[in-house]
Amino acid sequence: MIRFRIDGREVEARPGETILAAARRAGIEIPALCHHDLLRPYGACRLCIVEVRAPAKHGRPSRPRIAASCDYPAQDGLEVSTEAEPVRAMRRTAARLLLARAPDAPRLRALAERLGVREPFEPDPHADGCILCGLCVRACAEAVRAAAIGLTGRGERRGVGMPYGENHDACIGCGACDWICPTGILHSQADAAERFRRAAGEDRLCRYARLGLVPGAVCALSYECHRCDVEQMMRARFGDEHPALGAERLRRTGGATEASR
Ligand code: FES
User: Distance between CA 122 and CA 53 in Å, rounded?
Assistant: First the structure.
């Protein structure tokens, strides 16, 4: 096991574990908005930053540095501070910037308040409520394994969408993107599932057909998959490894992130 200190307290971590994961296991709270235990860290929100000091080398103390704890591997002898004043100030700035993009997101507002953001902030006139944290994109690619959506555009036009703004065959309508979105902006897009149903239109292709698992299968149940034999068959065959179950896996294990519901 790796041993290091957080706020003066000795904490253990498994090899490869991040500071955030070790802290949470030890019951130490670090705010985080763009993290989910099942997904690769992306370091977008910067709310999980901490001050990290490596062990002294050749008798010389190392300089402290600021790092995203969701993406920083625990190491023997690290000294981590979650509450140093520069860290708190930078978190407040990060929260204000996120709020400028999503001023009406209730969870973000609550989190910002907990971090002590009291000052007014200037809403970004180009913002659409998406904070570009990439959780939906990672969930779709890594948990659902559909990779139907991605970050698109640049600058003011940066956003999330399907290639060329059109419905993508890879979308299986599982709703993982909607569920994991920390600002709720994806709700307003009639939900991926609903869009998928509309896009399927006359073809009414089964979502497993879209994944190439049941070639040519057509849905006769209005995509109420829980009533479908194909769904049961797929679950029996693939168990937890089935891509369509990615959304469920996220829900089951999502308790560790501020983004979870
Ligand atoms: S940057 Fe670590 S949780 Fe967002």
Answer: 34
- C-alpha closest to that of 112 among 88, 145, 80, 140: 88
d(CA 182, CA 34): 8
Do residues 254 and 139 make contact, with C-beta atoms less than 8 angstroms apart? no
User: Is residue 218 within 8 Å of residue 206, measured between CB atoms?
Assistant: yes
Q: Which residue has the least CA distance to atom 3 on ligand 1?
A: 32
pLDDT digits (tens, 9 = 90+) for 132-183: 999 999 998 988 888 888 998 888 788 888 777 666 667 777 777 877 889 8
Stated pTM of the model: 0.79
Domains (range + CATH), the chain: 2-114 (3.10.20.740), 135-256 (no CATH)
Residue pair 211/243 in contact by the 8 Å Cβ criterion = yes
Query: Which of 19, 30, 34 maximizes ligand 1 atoms within 8 Å of its Cβ, making it the mutation to test the pocket?
Result: 34
Residues 85 and 77: beta-carbon distance below 8 Å: no
pLDDT of 256 over the 50 cut? no
Neighbouring CB atoms inside 10 A of 154's CB total 7
